[in-house]
Design goal:
The chain has helices at residues 17-29, 41-50, 68-77, 108-122; strands at residues 9-13, 33-38, 55-59, 61-62, 65-66, 81-85, 101-103. The chain is α/β, with parallel strands linked by helices. Helix 2 packs parallel to helix 3 (68-77). The strands form two sheets. Strands 2-1-3-6-7 form a five-stranded parallel sheet, with helices on both faces. A two-stranded antiparallel ribbon has the order 4-5. The protein has a single domain (9-122), classed as Rossmann fold, CATH 3.40.50.2300. The longest helix is centred in the last third of the chain and has 15 residues, at 108-122. The protein is built from four helices and seven strands. Strand 4 and strand 5 form a beta hairpin.
């Protein structure tokens, strides 16, 4: 059964503009509300602290800067997230192993599946 993702508020953190636009289009098609997007860690941290969000999709590497401080912040806040990376879980810290990972490049069906998992975590 496919999860209803309508209205799900998803923080998008991605530094490549074309990839970010593609994710935004996929989220729009799935009925989600895009929070952001943010292309830098400082922007993402501000959005995560101020905006209402249900979950997040995080690019692991933002122009050479690690996303892990944001992952730690979201974890402490209780907001579920998925990593988006071309390296699978090989580029994750031990504490992040087991977190949902979207292997780049990914399709809308992959994004929908992972968001369904995150929505279940939200409740």
């Amino acid at each position: 059964m496919k999860a209803d993702l309508t209205g799900l508020r998803v923080l998008v953190v991605e530094d490549e503009m074309m990839v970010s636009m593609l994710i935004e289009d996929m989220l729009d098609d799935l009925g989600c509300k895009v929070v952001g997007p943010a292309s830098r860690l400082d922007e993402a941290m501000t959005l995560a602290g101020e905006a209402e969000l249900d979950c997040a999709v995080l690019d692991v590497n933002l122009g050479g800067q690690s996303i892990f401080p944001l992952a730690d912040f979201l974890r402490a806040k209780g907001a579920p997230f998925a990593f988006a990376t071309g390296y699978g879980d090989a580029g994750l810290r031990d504490v992040d192993k087991g977190s949902p990972v979207l292997q780049k490049p990914f399709r809308e069906t992959d994004l929908a599946r992972v968001l369904g998992e995150l929505k279940t975590a939200v409740g």
